[in-house]
Amino acid sequence: MRAFLIGVAGSGMAPLAGLLRRAGHEVWGSDVSFDPPMGPRLRQWGVRTFSGTDAAHLDGLDPARDVVVVGNVCRKDHPLVREAEARGLRRISMPTAIRELVATGSAGKRPVVAIAGTHGKTTTTAMVAWLLAHGGLEPGWLVGGVPARALDGGGGEGEPFEIGRTARSLTASAPLAPFVIEGDEYDSAFFEKVPKVWGYAPTLAILTSIEHDHVDIYPDAERYRDAFRGLLSRLPAEAEGGMLVANAADPEVVALVERERPRCRVVWYAASDMAGRGFPSAPSSKEPPVWTASEVGLSGDGDAVQPFDLFVGPSSAGRFGVGVFGAHNVANATAAIALAVEGFGLPVRETAGALGAFVGVKRRQEKLVDGGRGARGVTLYDDFAHHPTAVDATLRSIRSRHRGARVVALYEPRSATACRAMHQAAYPEAFAPADVVVLAPLGRSTIPAAERLDLDRLASDLRERGKQVERPTDLDALVATVVALARPGDVVLSMSNGAFGGVNAKLREALA
After folding, report:
1. How many CA atoms are closer than 13 Å to the CA of 295, on its beta-carbon side?
2. Fewer C-beta within 10 Å: the chain N or C terminus?
């Protein structure tokens, strides 16, 4: 079968193209540009690419057997969408492609593990895939980021996808290998206006958190909750293998699970930071969380892992480490361990111990410049944070690793949620761990003034808290500002859910 992907160079569609190629399909795709990192990777993966929207790109597709995968950024008036319809080609969404072409085969339906929630999906998805691979289950996966190390334990940088074992082993009773996927709550496609995570039809899921996001499609918190309410209603019954690993430290998660009472088995987890924040009260209708963990303080920025103490029920399982840092990643690790052990029967200590070699996903606290090795003595990190909760968690993690450093936070409000005033009051506290805050211009100019994040007010609020705040007029000025103010020993953290206009590459060159 041949699959044609419209918008193939996107952060989600490109890994899907590689996954379908790995599954044995012939894969074509079009986009307006093929910039790194996905453009070159598509060619490495054997995907045939076309630039632009010429109707001739679809020549050679057979309506009887081929499909056109339409990304959720495409509108119904996209030229190739209209052309595919005119030619009678079947159009499917990304979730349908996963469900039909990857998770189901001649041997039956593989168990799909979906990692859902507002925060932590990408890292937790990679953690679960890592643990199941190290447990010998030969899983497949699709991660919304590039793993810094191969998730199957191989050398070098990892791939964001793997098909895994798709057939039963020679032992007739051997279960099919699981498929692990980031369960995004965003729309599937213009013709399938439901959360992508619903379309994956998961058997097992993790629910990390619920905090109003994606305001462009969920105008209020209740509609946003509906995305997760629908996920819970779709998980199979416990007798059919359905299981939810839920965060007992998130009151929204607890309230939703208790209210909806899903048919599946529910396993609670939680983690606390060094100050005890975030440690749960028992959900009122459930037993206390079975899986809990406590962050252990770092000795300094030379630490290779984030230590944590793990408990199963009232019993200590021991002290372990994970190669990504901060209390939020201790929580992610706890969820991943709980799913691997409770869902697939892997041994506790060996499973938890495997996370010591897990080093995360690119653009999640990724160190781009090591100040200890020159570079004017300035350390540069890049992170995807774009929501006040994520900004706060990331900055606290950086602060815990570099306690004596001056922390310079660069922030680009770019997403539909980040550019709106809905979190205006939360941002000043989110930047509390930073010493200097550099605010880039809003990444969206079409938001009505009454709904727009007020950067002047944010800057004023931060200055009242004693922060140095810089407001460069454009991204070139931002780079010049950071280069001018950075001094040896500083830690610079860049935060954006987009490419940030190439700021990081320019800073890396300037600081080298």
Report:
1. 26
2. C
Give 355-398 pLDDT, tens digit per residue.
Answer: 999 998 888 888 888 887 656 789 999 998 888 999 999 999 99
Number of separate domains in the chain: 3
SS3 468: strand
Q: What are the tokens at 33? A: 């540009």
* Spatial contact of 44 and 34, defined as CB atoms under 8 Å apart: no
Domain match, 108 and 46 both: no
pTM of the model: 0.90
Closest CA to 243 of 216, 264, 269, 273: 264
Using a 10 angstrom Cβ sphere, with 0-12 exposed, 13-18 middle and 19 or more buried, the burial of residue 507 is: buried
The Cα 440–Cα 28 span in angstroms is: 37
Length of the chain: 512
CA 16, 18, 21, 23: dihedral to nearest 10 degrees?
A: -70
The last residue of a domain, from among 307, 338, 357: 357
Q: Who contacts 165 (Cβ-Cβ below 8 Å, separation ≥6)?
A: 138, 139, 140, 176, 177
